């Protein structure tokens, strides 16, 4: 089996928002039939073609670290969870579109992941008012994903999507809203698939090609590895 370069992407969000289902969909391209609570951390691997279709195309492993637990809580829980936050190259923030609290908690998750104990101002304010300066120096690429889109009635979708639109702006990130039980939301060529690919490309560029704002020299070509998932790793 080829040895490919890899990047580490955290998948963070409140319990029950659908992180495990999302990771399974991203890595297996299949719906997770019976999702269970994640204890500790579960790691799955996706194969990604960086700059697909261009002369610079290279294949990488994307390690998706699905971190369980609830934001905040006891310091001992945070300390244990912090082990998973080392050497992070990207973060996917996941919230439940039907649960406003899970959207607000993304600020706390992101601050915890970048090892900052600041309490974000405005987290509990529903109009999205918070201090953007707390994230001004963050260099880790972020992607915001809203789940359970199917559970929002068509007549109310615009209202909900308008309410959470500020999230992407606050985190300087793109956003994807989907239903993890329907693979078509990430179908090849769709706008969501393009956003996802663009995010992974950015994570890879930050890790391997850009340092302190400067382009880094390329690295030797690796033998390509075709399709699918490498393996699943589970940490309890």
Automatic annotation (TrEMBL):
PROSITE patterns: RAB (PS51419). One of its GO terms (molecular function) is protein homodimerization activity. CDD domains: RabL3 (cd04102). GO terms for biological process: B cell differentiation; natural killer cell differentiation; protein stabilization; regulation of Ras protein signal transduction; T cell differentiation in thymus. The keyword Nucleotide-binding applies. It comes from the Eukaryota. Keywords: GTP-binding, Nucleotide-binding. InterPro entries: P-loop_NTPase (IPR027417). It holds the Pfam family Roc. Homodimer. Interacts with GPR89; the interaction stabilizes GPR89. Interacts with RAP1GDS1. Belongs to the small GTPase superfamily. Rab family. Required for KRAS signaling regulation and modulation of cell proliferation. Regulator of KRAS prenylation, and probably prenylation of other small GTPases. Required for lymphocyte development and function. Not required for myeloid cell development. This is Rab-like protein 3. The lineage of its organism: Eukaryota, Metazoa, Chordata, Craniata, Vertebrata.
